Amino acid sequence: MFDKLFSKLKGDKAEPEDNTSAEEKNRVAFTALLVEAARADEIYTDKEKGLIAKLVKQQFAIDDADALALREKAEAAQAEANDLYRFSSTVKNGLTPEEKIQLIEGMWQIILSDDARDPYEDMIVRRLCGLIYMSDHEAHEARRRVEQRQE
Prior knowledge:
This protein is mainly alpha-helical and 151 residues long.
């Protein structure tokens, strides 16, 4: 740990450059936030994993294998993250307003899929909406649309 710190202070390149494309970062952030919604209640089911795969397949027009790989990459990224900021800043700057709405709708689909509500799930969506500058009205409408589709 200290070697890494001293290396940075001396100006050495301690870590390799991140050559990940902006599109890939956006995809991982989008998917990691879906994983965050699924894990918010501390129960991460196969049903939620399948729903995440379905959502990213639709969102990014990718096949099953790519959706699985993306979900696994996002799970690892989400597990390493300390907070939502890492992903929210990518989403805020990298996604269109329509894509942000699709993300929030996807999060609500996952949250509502288990018919059990956890207060932390609501808080995650509210915090994210604030971080990506989505209005309360837009967030509420996204949730309402998801609830109507599930009836």
